[in-house]
Amino acid sequence: MPTSTRASITRNARAPRHFALRSIVRRRTALLGGVILLILVALSLAAPLVSTQDPEKMVLAQVLKPPSQQFPLGTDYLGRDILTRILYGGRLSLLIGLLAVAVGLAIGVPLGAISGYYGGWIDLGIQRIADILLAFPGFLLSLSLVAALGIGLQNVILSVGIGALPSFIRLVRGSVLTIRELTYVEAARATGVPDWAILFRHVLPNALAPVIVQATLNLGTAILVAAGLGFLGLGVRPPTPEWGTMLGEGRNYIFSAWYIATFPGLAIFFAVLGFNLLGDGLRDALDPRLKNF
Amino acid sequence: MLRYLTRRLLATLVTLLGVSVIVFMLMHLLPGDPARLIAGLTAPEAEVIRLRTQLGLDQPLAIQYWHFLTNLLQGDLGTSIRSSAPVLSEILARMPWTILLAFVSMLLATLVGIPAGVIAARWRNSLPDYVVSLVTLFGISMPVYWLGLMLIILFAVNLHWLPAGGNESAPSVILPAVTLASFSVALIARMTRSSMLEVLGQDYLRTARAKGLRENAVVFRHALKNAFIPVITVIGLQLGMLLSGSVLTETVFGWPGIGLLLVDSIFARDYPVVQGVVMVFALIFTLLNILVDICYAYLDPRIHYT
After folding, report:
1. pLDDT in tens, B247-278
2. In terms of DSSP H, where are the helices of B123-257?
3. Which of chain A's ends, N or C, has fewer CB atoms near its CB within 10 Å?
């Protein structure tokens, strides 16, 4: 056997967790994604240290100032420093994405697990619910829900979270369907372990790898959707800084002040890019079968 | 196949019934009295009562839903509060613009996405592949509404090459179509690339190479045809996505389709129109999904439905 093949077999035979971690680090794109996100999170958290300006205070004497040394990204139509608002807005935009995916996970994972494990009528019922939610294309479900519930932070998180639900239900169901047939599950059943313990202690932990990948990719989507709602004026209430809402406000000034819409959009782009790079890297590391995509 | 189709159609009917419940509930999720909210907080009580009766909100919820459903089945989506016109006629008047935008975008996405994916797969792990990967990554990460604004700033405000919005002339469709197509281009290119790579690894192509065929002949004559099936699925599903994606793009460019109608109606609290547009979007998307499934079965003889 050639040395390189032997070495590769030895490498792959090690703990899968270490293998995954090494793969992530080895893939520079995933690392780049992680670095982009770290920078965005760090800047958002350190906003008061980076800028001494108030993100919400109107200063009418400095309305619509183009980028300069004093205002690196310019000021908006109410004289607020755009850089400061992007830094503070990052807190909210990233938090909305995180919490929305958390809502999707908290409801979608148990539903998918129960659906895949028990099968029968329960499965049929849960899958019909997923079908119904999937019948609303793109961000239409989140848009409809926020239109009905009204604007505000909670409603945006809930609407975007429900929009992310079906992908988790489907994914977890698929994984659980495969795992429940494995011999160790059969052994657990034979030794009298209760169903809920088999499902949540033995099956679900082994079904989580694709869920982690999906959740990372969904974070990017959730940020896009939430910012889209903000852009339409259906996000958080002004004057709270949030990237999508800032972009929407900038739309009215594109003929005179290009910088109001440009920079918040770049922030959204980098955040989504970061999650997509990280998600792609995680997918390659945790599920090498999907490497081609 | 027929049995599969019947079962699929029945499941779709159940799904659409569920969709109708959600759409119906949209007006009832509003916190407080929907009639009061729609009429406005300062509207006189008589106006609120009139609106409540007009919308049937004075009846029990189950009866309201029954009326909603039976009207829906007869193609009656209610009456717009703003214009007093039937919701269906408002939607039909705007629909051609949304369809036009979606089709131009899809044409663009296919014409750019498929060749890009094929090039990336043919020259895997070389410069063209890296360029396509980078561009597609940007495509799926970019907010379409931001891209739209950037295109307006560049091509309308600075270069004066194209109109910034509206639908007065043929060139008006270019910027909205490019904006709307950006995500689909990326997705189609990625799917074409991955599908091509999968096919290129098959035994029959190894045979083709072994008998001395040139790589270009292997890729373009033999692999491409077989790699198309998953790509067609993505194109079909993307068409549905483009229709709903038009909500943001139409808002950016003031394109008078049903996406813009939906946004305007949300702000005007014209809930019958909101319900109607959402229902129509979901219906088109669901029907497109079935169509994609049927095409899939015809295109791939290996697939058997029972």
Report:
1. 999 999 999 999 999 999 999 888 899 999 99
2. 127-141, 144-151, 174-200, 203-210, 215-217, 224-253
3. N
